[in-house]
Amino acid sequence: MNTYNPIMALMVFFGICLLAYLLFRPNNGWFWLIRKGSHSNDKIIVEDILKRLYHNENSGKYLNTNDIVRILKQNEKMVIESIDHMANQGLIRMEGDVVKLTKLGSDYALRIIRAHRLWERYLAEKTGFNKAEWHERAERKEHELSMDETNLLAYKLGNPQFDPHGDPIPTITGKMAKLRGVPVSELKVNTIGRIIHIKDKPDIIYKQILAENIHIGSIIRIVEKSKERIVFHSEGEAFKLAPIMAGNITVSVLEKNLAFEDNVSRLNILKENESAKIIGISKEIRGESRRRLLDLGFVKGAEVRIDLLNPLGEPKAYLIKGTSIALRNNQASKILIKK
C-alpha cells in the first residue's frame, strides 16, 4: 500500500517551480535565451547577406543565391529562409536567381558597415588589441550595436571619416568620403606616393601585408616593376611584393618634384653605436599607445641610440633623454628617425 509523503511532495513541487523559474524567468530564462539566440543568429545572417551584397554591388558585381550560400558558409536552409524573409521585408529583390539590394536594404547595409568601421577605429585608438584582430572583433560587434550606440560611439571618436585601414566610414545619412588614390600595382617606376588604404579582404593577402610591416601614412617610391614583383622603398627599407598584394595597397600620388628622403628610416633599423633624431611617429600608432610613446620622450627632435641589445633579438633598450626604454621591434618600427 502506497503512503503519501507530504515532505517528498513538497520537494517535488518546489523542484518543478524552480525548473519553471529557470526556464521562463523574464529576459534571462533558458527559454528566452534560446529563443533570443535563435533570433540573434537570424539577424546576423540577414545583416551579413546585406553587407556582402552591398560590397559586391559597389564593385559592379552581383550575387545569386548559390553565391550567398557559398560565401556565408552557413546552413543552406537557414540562408534560403533568410533570403525569402528579406525579400518579404523589402530589403532585396530577385531578378531570376540574382539577388539585388533595394534602397531600404542598401541603407540597412550602410548602418552595419558604419558600426563595423567605427568599432575598428575604436579598437585602434582605445585598446591594445593587435591590428590583425580588429576586423574579426568588429565583425562580431557590428551586430550588437544599436543605431543610437553607433552614433554615440562616432561622437566619442570625433566623427572620424576613415577607419584604421583607410576605408571611409558612412555618416548617419549614409554618405561616405571619396577614396582618391591609385593601387601600388598601377604605379610607374620613380612614382612617389603616400599609403592611404590597405584592403582587409581577402584575409590571406591582408595578413601577408601585415607581416611585411607596411603602414598607412608611409611615403613610398617605386624602384622596380615587373610581372613577377613590385619593389618600393619606404622608411629605410625595401619592400618586394607580388602584384596581387600590391594591388590591395592604395596610395595618394605626390608631386614629382617632392624630395624623397632616403635617409629617413625606422627606429628598429638603428644599429649599435649609431645615433639618430626622432622625426615623428607613424599614424599606425594611435590613442593611448601614441600618448605613451610621447610621454616616454619619443618626440620630434629628440636624440636616440641603442642602450642595450637583447641576445634574443627583442626587445631592445633605447636611450632617450637619459632614460633607457625597452621596445619591441614592432613598436620601434612605428617611430621614424634620421640618422
Could you please describe the fold and organization of this structure?
The protein has 339 residues and is of the alpha+beta class. Among the domains are: 72 residues, Ferrous iron transport protein A (FeoA) (SH3 type barrels), CATH 2.30.30.90; 75 residues, Ferrous iron transport protein A (FeoA) (SH3 type barrels). Helix content is 41%, strand content 21%. A 6-stranded antiparallel β-sheet has the order 4-9-5-6-7-8. A 6-stranded antiparallel β-sheet has the order 10-15-11-12-13-14. β6 and β7 form a beta hairpin. α2 packs across α4, α2 packs across α5 and α5 crosses α7. The radius of gyration is 27 Å and the shape is globular. The chain starts with 5 loop residues before the first helix and ends with a strand. 27% of the residues are buried.
Task: Summarize this structure briefly.
The chain has 339 residues and is an alpha+beta fold. It contains eleven helices and 15 strands. The protein starts with 5 loop residues before the first helix and ends with a strand.
Helix-strand topology string: HHEHHEEHHHEEHEEEHEEEHEEEHE
Distance between the termini: 100 Å
- Tally of helical runs: 11
**What's the CATH topology label of the domain at 264-338?**
SH3 type barrels
> C-alpha Rg, in Å?
27 Å
Number of strands: 15
Helical content stands at: 40-55%
